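Subject: Sanity check before I submit

Could someone independently write out the structure tokens for this chain? I want to compare against mine line by line before I put it in a report. The sequence has 193 residues.
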Amino acid sequence: MNEQYLEIERRFLVDGREEKPWRNGSQRSIIKQHYGIEAHVHLNENRLEVEGGALTELSEDELALYIAVDDWTSRLRICDGTCILTCKSRVSTSVARELEWVVDEEVAHALLAKGPFPHVEKTRYMWKGEDGLLWEIDEFEGALAGLVLAEVELKRPDEAVAIPAWMGQEITGLASWSNRSLAQTLAFTPEHS
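---
Independent answer below. Compare away.
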């Protein structure tokens, strides 16, 4: 398996009622992630397309991996105005295959026009831990306001991590806490329907 396309991470709940040290001097991004777009994304030779245009062209390695895996889930993230298509496939509780591309804004919005799609909105803070690892702290908005999740990407599943004191329960591998599951749950609330 090509390690270039692996994402290894640990995820945690965070008690956001106390101090929020991750906000101090951290890079911040505004994110909206849409899920359930798979039915509208199609492979045509070496391109992922939607009705309305090509989302991205795949490299030889990406194409080989995309064809070899049959359980991809996809999301379209809009992060500070940049549209990013991601395809993921779970390998184990802490490891996923991941392909990711910046896509044309016009084509991305043509895809979103086929919705509505389940989505989450959040503010992401990048926070460096005492061991030098970079944490992503997500403060959710809308119906999930008050929920704070943190994740740290690793080089290998058994890599040592200095867990900050303000970190709560580990949720690595718990599918019900994935952004996709949260978005799908929200899809059935009046605010999101």
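---
OP: Matches mine. For the report I'm noting this point. The chain has a mean pLDDT of 92.
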